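Exam prep: given the inputs below (a chain plus calcium ion), describe the expected output before reading on.
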Amino acid sequence: MPTILLVLAAFAAFIPVLAVDGMLDTYVRARETSALQTRVDAITQDSQAAVHDAIQSLRRILAASPSLCTPTFFANVNAELIGNLYLKQVMVENRDGVQYCAAYDTTVEYRVLSESLNIPGHTEMLSVVQIADFPRPLLKVTQSFGEQRMVSALVVAAPILSLESGTLFDGLNYLQLSLTSGTPILSRGDAGVEGADGRQDYLLARSFAGEIPIKAEAAASFESLRPGYAQLDLAFTIVACLVGVMILVMALHFVRRSSLPSFDLERAILAGEMKPYYQPVINLRTGRLVGCEVLIRWVKRNGEVVPPGAFIDYAEMSGLAIPMTLSLMEQVRVDLEDLCRDVKDFKVSINLFEGHFRDGSIVEDIHSIFEGSGIEYRQLVFEITERRPLDDRVAANRIISSMHKLGVRIAMDDAGTGHSNLAYLQTLGIDIIKIDKIFVDMIKDASTPVPVIDGLISMARDMDIEIIAEGVETQDQALYLRAKDVSLAQGYLFAPPMKLSAFRTLADALRPEEKLSNLGADIAA
Ligand code: C2E
Ligand code: CA
Ligand code: CA
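Solution:
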């Protein structure tokens, strides 16, 4: 399983590196296509403005001239020619193309390059012509005057192209301005690219001038644009490599953490290798055995006993904590039923995981295992550790109150080491706190005050919460605690967690109840 994970992780680590190219291609396409669109839009906008200006010039000339080809008419034409830089000529013809007059006192020689198109919403017509003394085709905007005569303005098709043709064409493989009917006005570049729609190797953009029948199209080769993004490519690749390395490191970390007991834990639970060990809880005043805490051990087939520190995190992470606890509770029932039946106030404390306080199944499990057994609910205590915060407090409250309804009690383990405040303990409905070993360790002798412990004790007492001291290793610690009226304690001073047979022997030796335990007798005396 770890090998498979590592192989998968190795593949996963390559994905970002492989994805960089594709992602960057997509990005370059989107960005460059949008830039291309901006350019063709600028060209059609400019053509539209030029045609509009020509229409306005024509209208002003006609409005101010009662008749054509008169000195007044020429004066008006000249004024427009001076005022409108892109207006190249104004001429008067009949419908058969016979010229009556033109500005600059000449006859205009021109070739007609297109049909005459309507300009939607206007009375003017539009066509493309080529005059002798101008290098590029011009747009001819024509308005009729009376029945017979036509007045035309010749205007530069897209002034922006003659002004900045250099920069506008930069990086383009193809650029064409044409009538919407298809007749080209201007084209540059590789005509083979025309209509390259759907081709992956070219980026294309097309724009229609809204009001006049003119469109612009441009194409740029993707291959020629992509190198411009080499630096970004490098940056992306570096980031992708880092992400890949992170994936690998995390996978290795995960495998190392979990590889110790991981692959075997599930089997071990099924094989019954997870065993409850029992640590006595002693009454400091009477020296009597009053209960025990169940602490899990993995007893391997070769006899090796693995402490919970090596597998408890993995059990929690993998979801095995739930079946593990279930198996433990079943064994506890079998192991301690007789003892609990005989000694009615014997208490058994079982550790739970944070996960137990997320879904309510623990309540059903407790019920199905202990209902009708020799262990009564009031003899059971369930411990929650304060080291890990309960994520879902609402769920935790609900589950704890269901447990209370059964009649079991709840202990806050490792009290003082975690994140809870006093009010929180009370809202959770904690019945017992277990003062952590790190605080008990602060007691150096029986008479020097330890304010932290004193504080915890008086807080618990104020809230009517029972106290058990953990990790009691010295006589002084036991005496100090007893002097503070803490009556329950567990620790190596009395006994370590023991396997069932040893614990039974100890418990038997301590019965009948009245008999003082040898363990506690010294301090009880
Ligand atoms: P814990 O619940 O705080 O258990 C007390 C730990 O302190 C136990 O370690 C116990 O062997 C040890 N201990 C008891 N008296 C002394 C002492 O005087 N001195 C010293 N130095 N240590 C003492 P253990 O059994 O290794 O368990 C470690 C932790 O693993 C437990 O801490 C508990 O959080 C967890 N754990 C153990 N069994 C279970 C279980 O069945 N379910 C759950 N959810 N957690 C468990
Ligand atoms: Ca505990
Ligand atoms: Ca503890």
